[in-house]
Amino acid sequence: MNYSTLKKTVALSFASLMVAGMVNAQTDSAKTTSTGKLFGGIGQYNTFSIGASVGITDGLVPFTNNTTTKFKAELGYGLSLRQQLSHTFSLQLDYLGGKVHGVDDAANSTPGQSVTSTSKFGISEYRTSFNSGALSAVFNIASVSFLHRANSVNFYTSAGLGLDFYKVKSNTLANGTVQTLPFGDKNVKELFAPVGAGVKFKLSDALALNLGYTISFVQGYNFAGISTYPTFSHYSYTYGGLEYTFGSSSKKNLEWVNPVAVMYDELYDAALRQEVEALKGRVTNVETAVSDLKKDSDGDGVADQFDKCPGTAAGSVVDGSGCVIVFPKPVDTVAAPKATAYSNIQFEFDSSVLRTSSYPVLDATSADLRSSGKGVEVDGFASSEGTAAHNLSLSKDRANSVKTYLVNSGVDAKKVKVKGYGETMPIADNSTEEGRVTNRRVQFKQK
């Protein structure tokens, strides 16, 4: 393909893209595009695009040791195929062709004179044609905009690796001598790394205007027809072009989708709002069920769900089933017997807290132990409600409550031993409430 044919091909590509974009824009206006889900997969978007560009090439590159000093524009042209993989990242296959014309005004161009020191590499002018292909990673910098719901301007950077096929057409030394080309009429093949930046303007969801700048770093030293070692050869491409994204008009172009806006729309999605309302209803039902579980109609402290004796009179002392506890009545109601040391200490149901009525017995026991210097074993017991393991632990707690009282009243802690027997060794019938009340006790064993 000659140079003229290439220019015609690029022009035709531009025209085709413009027509396709206008058709797509008309179709987009007639159809409503769907809104994607944030984690709905890449299939809900259009992601494949083709682009064409034309521009100018030059051997001058910023911030590098250039082979020439004068800007000399030549025609460059390019084609690209791009696959968008996410909102911010895509892979792009590029073709770039054209010519590079380099001129060094600082060189002495008088024939027959030696190369002056002002010439960097001893070159006054060169012309090189090239055709290159590369695979690049493209990073969209402004794909997520917190200021605008829809993006219409997108900044990007790119970097890649490929092969550059170039041919040095002419090379003039700084002294004006036309040098014999080092490779003759052959194409040179070398690796190169294109690095670029640009901006895209959204013309429609499928068509974009693309303006950019790319520097190609050739991994060799002979692009100018003479060795520039240790400076790698390089050239720039400043371009403008069009890019068209293929796909159904019912889908959005992933490059222009703002994921923050998509997430916001999902929060106000009608189906999601219905699910939230349904969830609120389920929570209300659970709260109602919990309230029913806690309901205590007779106020005895036992929920109706577990109350085996509903309608208990207010102020009644009840057990865990909501039934009134019947305490044994004292035989002599006229005068309470004098507290006797070492008498049994009784406890409430499932409790290890000492009753105040136990204090006289404990005080008498403490006085005897302190005066006699004797030791005592405190044995705890429980009734048969609950598991054996729980009752064993409860009986030990009851015995320890008695020991704590005695020690606090002055008894030597070393003189008081503690044992728990759980529901074993009952002294009354555990099948009756009266018997269970009697079995909830602590006994003393003098030593």
Descriptive account of the structure:
There is one protein chain. The protein has two domains: 3-28 and 46-257, Porin; 345-446, 60s Ribosomal Protein L30, Chain: A. The protein is built from six helices and 14 strands. The chain is 23% helix and 31% strand. It has 447 residues and is α+β, with helices and mostly antiparallel strands. Helix 4 crosses helix 5 (388-408). Strand 3 and strand 4 (89-103) form a beta hairpin. It starts with a helix and ends with a strand.
Percentage of β-strand residues: 25-35%
Question: How many individual domains?
Answer: 2
Average pLDDT, to the nearest integer?
A: 81
Q: Which strand order do you get reading across the main beta sheet?
A: 2-3-4-5-6-7-8-9
Q: Which CATH class of the largest domain applies here?
A: Mainly Beta
How would you sum up the major sheet? 8 strands, antiparallel, barrel
CATH topology of the largest domain: the name is Porin
Beta-strand segment tally: 14
Rg:
48 Å
What is the overall number of helices? 6
Helix content: 10-25%
Structural class label: alpha+beta
Coarse morphology: elongated
Low-confidence stretches: 5-34, 107-118
Instruction: Report the order of strands and helices.
Output: HEEEEEEEEEEHHEHEHEHE
Give the N-terminus to C-terminus distance in angstroms: 118 Å
Brief account:
This protein is α+β, with helices and mostly antiparallel strands and 447 residues long. The chain has helices spanning 3-30, 259-267, 270-294, 359-372, 388-408, 433-439; strands spanning 45-46, 48-58, 74-84, 89-103, 123-140, 153-173, 188-202, 207-218, 233-245, 252-253, 345-346, 376-380, 416-420, 441-446. The longest helix is centred in the N-terminal third of the chain and has 28 residues, at 3-30.
